[in-house]
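User: For a benchmark we're assembling, each entry needs the component sequences followed by a predicted structure for the full assembly. Here are entry 17's components. Please fill in the structure.
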Amino acid sequence: MTATIIDGKEFAARVRVKVGDHVTRLKNDHGITPGLAVVLVGEDPASQVYVRSKGKMTVEVGMKSVEHKLDINTAEADLLALIGQLNNDPEIHGILVQLPLPKHLNEDLVINSISPAKDVDGFHISNVGLLGTGQKSMVPCTPLGCLMMLRDHHGSLSGMNAVVIGRSNIVGKPMAQLLLGDSCTVTIAHSRTKDLADVVRRADIVVAAVGRPEMVPGDWIKPGATVIDVGINRIERDGKKKLVGDADYESCAAVAGAITPVPGGVGPMTIACLLANTVTACCRAHGFDEPEGLTA
Ligand code: NDP
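Assistant: Structure for entry 17:
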């Protein structure tokens, strides 16, 4: 079997078009422009790249983009004061604090100071609780992107066996909650899981979110299963720098029914879902219908 390649780049472009259409409607019908504020503390090069591309894509879909770049030594009280201002700013519907933060700042405290309604990363404890209890919440962008791709490929996920490898708060756990919400039978695997190969072999859906290059070989995959590869690993092979996922692409693609490549799979969906969450937050703030197909 040769797997269908789930093209995240193309899918993310479709999501951005949907977001852009909704932004246009909000502007034309109500005179409202959704606004996203991104806060970056320090000068971590990777974070700067992410923030730049988030800002660029926010503007491309017609939304307002605000960037706050703070000095690496910013005091916690000053960061919290800025978040307080953004919480109260009616033109800002989404707030994202770029992680990781410098060591002297308490990440949990900072994230939980964002208004849950504007928490477009979905990391606030209230949103975590809402998701866990099956209530309307802001959903973390990467797992939301994976869910959208799975729904698009399969239609209904009901009754499927899903294995999520990884139990982080930003990917593994919310991913498992979302799959459970779509009535999958969900197993969460992690570094202490015994006989991972056997666990993965039972899955119709495998979501790999570990951060270990090519750790899932094709002979762990049930024939026809769908592999969603969240991993982003930078390696050097034959003297060349390369990005690879957590799945061994060639051998998995030979057995799976469908697979997301790295790069060009889950990665592009993350920013697209950030934009989707911002437009959703704007609609909720004004009591309008939410855009269809852009939420969990
Ligand atoms: P974390 O490091 O927070 O979590 C990794 C998880 O993998 C942990 O739960 C850990 O288990 C588990 N794990 C580690 N080793 C093994 C093993 N040998 N077998 C089974 N499980 C194992 O990572 P993140 O969740 O933040 O990210 C995971 C990957 O996804 C990374 O490559 C990251 O770069 C990528 N990523 C990609 C995004 C995108 O936009 N595409 C967005 C976010 C992340 P334990 O808890 O027991 O330690």
